From TrEMBL:
GO molecular function per UniProt: ATP binding; propionate-CoA ligase activity
Lineage: Bacteria, Pseudomonadati, Pseudomonadota, Betaproteobacteria, Neisseriales
Domain spans labelled Acetyl-coenzyme A synthetase N-terminal: 6-60
PANTHER family reported in the protein's UniProt record: ACYL-COA SYNTHETASE, ACYL-COA SYNTHETASE SHORT-CHAIN FAMILY MEMBER 3, MITOCHONDRIAL
Protein name per the record: Propionate--CoA ligase
Residue stretches making up the AMP-binding enzyme C-terminal domain: 515-598
Stored InterPro entries: ACAS_N, AMP-bd_C, AMP-bd_C_sf, AMP-binding_CS, AMP-dep_synth/lig_dom, ANL_N_sf, Propion_PrpE
Highest rank taxon of the organism: Bacteria
């Protein structure tokens, strides 16, 4: 229920953060009240709710038992195995408390790390909640990462126990996890955990089990049928988890999250941003391996007494109506997805969006990449509900720019995620001078510390790296850098222009990749595009575009190819001026993307400049990078 002027609300949150967040803190259960809302004597480090004791699992599960024990908590649907099951809060409690007892029996206690490398199955959520129940720290690694990537994360987190499964499934294809795990464990050497708990789904060859190290989950569960672990109360700033960034720009950073601040921040977002109410169903199409999955598949919906829908499968299998059928069946009220997935659905037959009753849905939220105008307008038109862009990062844990319609019913502007979210003192800076820039001027998006509750506490085990990486933008002033480039309008609405690493400098004019990409994508024939800056002796850099066409038959002969390239270039010239003109437009069937669906511009750029594409461990499908290689080599 809108009850404020959003601008006043935001101003109050940054003018007196301690007072603002003290009011919000009442949203969660505190075993012991905090004595100080904010401690900020060692900037940029800060502690929220100092001295308070709480527990994430208790807030997500136990707290609801009295009032909503029989209500749905976790709805799991897999179109890969054809399974569908709903766990009530009571059943979720039984599973989680038992799983925690199993971990405890393996020696897991406060501060110990549990590495979770799992497909999208309920046991993955049980394992996460069980870990924080014990005051231990989870590190979820996206299932399907290759053994090398897994090994580096094992080495960094040094887990006591690892939880995995026999296999994951994707589009009907079995990806055996256990052999990858075995290889990663041998690569990790003495950082490898002593115990590995294996959930055998029975979808792959029975996994090789190493005696003394590997334990079968079903057997443990049977043996410990009646065991339940108690909640371990932890101080608010005790770490709840480590999560690595997507690795789009280079080496992933291990983001460390606190406990109390995170719970409070997530609880507040359900009212102010998402408008999800207890008893309703929240559907986030992300994966638990990413921050959206942590915050909006697992913790925020459960902390707020909602049912969360967890989906294993593709958005297009068995058909492109599968998500919408779930919205109808489970009366989803709030949905959360990513532009990359929506662009896939946009290419499908429009009938799939007409087949189901979507009346329950109140809003669709999007994050992960710039939400382009054509995709946003299309889906908003089809669904007839607001489509709201959220801009945030693994580091922040919850949105940093959006339209907080739970505070005031402000307009959504297509192409913009909106205004700074309460708690975030967002500013735009000129990178060279360190001066703040005003409306209409491009700059790097920064946040004045102290960072609000739930944002990263530090880089796991590397406090120095936290300070130098995130606060090293200016010598004389502490500013958190997002490494994204943006611009804001007179109303304060931001537009993301791309990553600072990807800014293209043509003869002294600085252009965000997003600006040129939007112009290219405005051509009706183009489905998706990535633009990179390629070094040029004359101009410094020139833009090159790599575009996927909607209908490949348009490229049947060299003439039509050339015609389309010319049209695209003309369009960019018209939208942005000749300075932004791509020197070339290459047509490919597919762009290289990270496993979280982000375009790997750094590798495209490297290939376009004849260099090595660099670290490709986060690459989803090697075909994308091959396409680019072939395109530039002619
Ligand atoms: P790494 O930090 O390892 O290079 P990454 O930045 O892709 O990887 P994430 O934390 O998963 O890792 O992604 C956050 C980034 O995604 C943001 O900094 C921004 O570049 C982009 N992003 C997220 N949401 C949006 C959005 N709504 N609009 C535009 N860009 C977005
Ligand atoms: Mg990043």
């Amino acid at each position: 229920m809108p009850h404020h002027s959003y601008r006043d609300f935001h101003a109050a949150s940054v003018a007196d953060p301690a007072a603002f967040w003290t009011r919000e803190a009442g949203r969660i259960h505190w075993h012991k009240p905090f004595t100080q809302a904010l401690a900020y004597d060692q900037p940029p480090f800060r502690d929220w709710f100092v001295g308070g004791e709480t527990n994430l699992c208790y807030n997500a599960v136990d707290r609801h038992l009295a009032e909503r024990g029989e209500q749905a908590a976790l709805i799991h649907v897999s179109t890969e195995t054809g399974s569908e099951r709903t766990y009530s809060y009571r059943e979720l409690y039984e599973e989680v408390a038992r799983f925690a007892a199993i971990l405890e029996a393996q020696g897991v206690g406060r501060g110990d790390r549990v590495l979770i490398y799992m497909p999208m199955i309920p046991e993955a959520v049980f394992a996460m909640l069980a870990t924080v129940r014990l005051g231990a720290v989870h590190s979820v690694v996206f299932g399907g990462f290759a053994s090398h990537s897994l090994a580096t994360r094992i080495e960094d987190a040094r887990p006591k126990v690892m939880v995995t499964a026999d296999a994951g499934l994707r589009g009907g294809k079995v990806i055996a996890y256990k052999p990858l795990v075995d290889e990663a464990l041998s690569l990790a050497g003495d950082a490898a955990p002593a115990r590995v708990i294996v959930v055998n789904r029975g979808v792959a060859e029975p996994p090789m089990m190493k005696p003394g190290r590997d334990l079968d989950y079903a057997e443990l569960r049977e043996r410990m049928q009646d065991a339940r672990a108690c909640v371990a109360w932890v101080e608010s700033n005790h770490p709840s988890y480590i999560l690595y960034t997507s690795g789009t720009t280079g080496k992933p950073k291990g983001v460390q999250r606190d406990t109390g601040g995170y719970a409070v921040a997530l609880a507040s977002t359900m009212e102010y941003i998402y408008g999800g109410r207890p008893g309703e169903t929240f559907f986030s199409t992300s994966d638990i391996g990413w921050v959206v999955g942590h915050s909006y598949i697992v913790y925020a919906p459960l902390i707020n007494g909602m049912a969360t829908l967890m989906y294993e499968g593709l958005p297009t299998r068995p058909d492109a109506g599968v998500w919408w059928s779930l919205v109808e069946k489970y009366r989803v009220t709030v949905m959360f997805s990513a532009p990359t997935a929506l662009r896939v659905l946009k290419k499908q037959d429009p009938v799939w969006l007409k087949k189901y009753d979507l009346k329950s849905l109140r809003a669709l939220f999007m994050a992960g990449e710039p939400l382009d105008e054509p995709t946003a307008s299309w889906i908003a038109g089809e669904l007839g509900v607001p489509v709201i862009d959220n801009y945030w990062q693994t580091e922040t844990g919850w949105p940093m720019l959006t339209v907080c319609r739970g505070v005031e019913d402000l307009p959504v502007k297509v192409g913009s995620p909106g205004l700074p979210v309460y708690g975030y003192d967002v500013r735009l800076f000129d990178e060279a001078t360190g001066e703040e820039v005003g409306p209409g001027q491009k700059g790097v998006i920064g946040v004045l510390p102290p960072l609000p509750p739930g944002c990263m506490s530090t880089v796991w085990g590397q406090d120095g790296r936290f300070v130098s990486t995130y606060f090293g933008l200016f010598k004389d002033r502490l500013v958190y850098s997002s490494f994204d480039w943006g611009i804001k309008d007179e109303d304060g609405y931001y537009t993301i222009l791309g990553r600072t690493d990807d800014v293209i400098n043509v003869a002294g004019h600085r252009l965000g990749t997003r600006e040129i990409e939007e112009a290219v994508a405005g051509h009706g024939a183009i489905a998706e595009v990535a633009v990179v800056g390629v070094s040029d002796t004359l101009k410094g850099q020139v833009p090159q575009a790599f575009a996927v066409v909607r209908d490949p038959s348009q490229l049947a002969d060299p003439d039509s190819r050339e015609r389309l390239e010319k049209e695209v270039i003309a369009r960019v010239a018209q939208a942005l001026g000749a300075i932004a003109n791509p020197a070339r437009v290459f047509f490919v069937n597919q762009l290289p993307k990270t496993r979280s669906g982000k375009v790997l511009r750094r590798s495209i750029q490297a290939l376009a400049e004849g260099r090595d594409p660099g670290d490709l461990t986060t690459l989803d499908d090697p075909a994308g990078i091959e396409q680019v290689r072939q395109a530039v080599q002619g």
